[in-house]
Amino acid sequence: MQHKFIIFLIAITTLMHQKSFAQIQKCRVYFNHKSTKSFDAKSYFDAKAIERRIRQELPLYDWYDLPVDAEYLQAVEANSQRLMMHSRWLNAAVILANPEQIEKIRAFSFVKEVEISAPQTVSLAGTLDSTDADVNEVLASQISRMGSASMEAKQFNGKGIRVAIFDVGFSGAENHDAFAHLRSKGRIIKTWDFVKNEENVYKGGWHGTAVWSCIGGKINNQWSGLAWDAEFLLARTEMGNKEPFSEEENWVAAAEWADKNGADIINSSLGYTDTRYFPEQMNGKKSFISRGANMAAKKGMLIVNAAGNEGDSQWKIIGAPADADSVLSVGGVEPCCDYKISFSSYGPTADKRLKPNVAAQGRALCAVANGTNTVDGTSFASPLMAGFAACMWQANRSLKNMEMFKALEESGHLYPYNDYAHGYGIPHADRFKNKVAMPTHFAIETDPSGLEFSVKINEDAFDPAAEEGKQLLYYAIVRPSGLIESYYVLHVAERVPLRINVNEYSKGNILRVHYKGQTSETEFK
Amino acid sequence: MKIISFKNLLFLLLFPSSMVAQQVMLSEDVAIDSTIEKRGPNRKHYTHTFMSFGLAADAGSAGAKVVQPRFDYFNFGIRYKRRLAEHFAVGFDLSYGLEDYRLKQEAGKKLPDSLLNSRERMIFNNFTTGLYMRFNFGKRGNQLGKYLDLGGYGNIVFSHTHFLKNKLADGSTVRARITGLNYYQLLNYGLSARLGFKKFVLFGQYRVSNMFYGDKNLPELPRILAGVQFVLS
Known about the structure:
The complex is a heterodimer.
Chain A: H1 2-16, H2 18-21, E1 25-31, H3 41-44, H4 47-55, H5 70-78, E2 82-87, E3 92-97, H6 99-107, E4 111-116, H7 135-144, H8 148-153, E5 162-167, H9 180-184, E6 188-193, H10 207-216, E7 218-219, E8 222-223, E9 231-236, H11 246-260, E10 265-268, H12 288-298, E11 302-306, E12 327-333, E13 358-361, E14 363-368, E15 371-376, H13 378-395, H14 401-410, E16 442-446, E17 452-457, E18 472-478, E19 484-491, E20 498-501, E21 510-515, E22 518-523
Parallel strand pairs in A: 5-9, 5-10, 6-9, 10-11, 11-12, 12-13
Antiparallel strand pairs in A: 1-3, 1-4, 2-3, 7-8, 14-15, 16-17, 17-20, 18-19, 18-21, 21-22
Chain B: H1 6-14, E1 19-20, E2 23-29, H2 30-34, E3 45-56, E4 71-85, E5 88-102, E6 119-137, E7 146-167, E8 173-178, E9 187-197, E10 200-207, E11 224-231
């Protein structure tokens, strides 16, 4: 009887956990140096990549661009089951190996670290929900609120800017009318499926199709994205519902590919959260993908990433790589109004940096595999922002990528006010690199006892008939360190919308208020 | 200690807190969000309820063969897990269990006697407590992930019922329900193993103790139970 029990245990164990019990493990092997001292950057990089480096005063190549030492790769390959991929930037190889092989590889003098990475299932950022919103209203507002009219008048349409899109697939995009103008002009420069190592990316799901249309598509004879004359690199890095760790590796490989092929902007509407990480690990340093994203930014590319759709869930905050400090994380706002759409993920990062950085509309009319649909998600706010950035870069070609990052923040409708739901708010073309005088719409008054702050709106800046959500006051309690302690958005229906009891807050904290373009603050004493 | 002046007190009475006369569209307290949770599927402490359905994985001893396959086991309980390391945890559970065996009516039957009936069932209700060690596989966030539990259990049988059903020559049916029996042991113990994939679990348990008193010379019912378990919340 006991034997039967043991056999039973072994059977179910083997059946259910073949991978877990198998000796083969997936590992990332990091090397401690590169023996190659130089390489021919001009033959390796696309001309656009060279141009980007020159324009941004970056060296044509640096240590990170040098190839991984071929001998190391050979040695690792010879002592593993399979060499899956390697990364120049991270000087690493991803392999499958058994414990004996791992130990052997670990002992190599040129190996810095071996990191075991077991396959895991993770959730996709950018869930898609059909809505019954007025499609024309959504389509009009998704780009007009960032100044599409102004950009069109100045012919800012992303021309000359190369945008890479990393996604789960671009099903239906190859024949979709929304991209006919791009196909006819040869604007699709390259495609690559990093999941299957093949050229065809027009499969795997329509999420990428929808995202692409928010950058440069045309729907119902209207532009659905701002950068409709940009060039595109389309990469499939996601596997869909079953998403192993290799997706992060695919992302980094795609970023190197985008760099090599001259991308100026990477849009990635994806994120990794609770199945892989804890909220306290969202510091931009923990995850492989965030480290890769920061490296991509060092190459002069602007990395635009969806903040995530976890605002309503227990996870709540941004995921990776939206946590990386050089990644422009994009939150979502309501189509009607300038406040956060419910599902958009919050900041800050685990190390208390501001995230999201900016915001765009979290609902969009998009191209899908067999037509169009109105969909919700920061997945679509991110490409709307990427399209905007492409146009602004076209207009300000001399800007370096992190200058562009800063300029995008500064053009937010809330700037210099910010919070962990909207960042600096929704950028607008008219505010981009264009300092406008701050209006005077309200005053923060202190009562004679000194125990109450009140915000009083000027009569000419107050509309008693304003629809709910159309007349907003933002305020935050900010610690001396700069960390926002709490923040709020109010619909203003009276001229004194806010009274604050000073005794409730610590001395030194700051009350910061934003209303219709004016930001003012006062200190708790 | 901060002393509240009369002026402040008066203010607090008149204005008990910060007042917002308008509609709040968004309100967030970052300090609350920044608290690192101690409870959760892959945190320090985790408690959840579970429900199991199982069947006898062996036929039982000669003389106590049971009808197979048939759902013979149900259990519902609460489980606690204490994480000690990324891949290792310990814990215990408390549950109610129901074992319901249908005895094969065949020659050589000895449990609880050699009489053959149209149908015969033995039902045991128990309270069970289990201790286990958990080995987790793979990196994960605040998720149960994949795991193997190895442990032991003990239970107290608080009721045992023997059901009989017979068809008589005249076509009528006689049902009998016998309780207050004295041949079964109150305490049982055994080993348990579970393989979990998130909230879905395959379990097996082996009863080491004998179910019946030795001096009764009764054959044993199946010792191995196996089935599925669902983590509920």
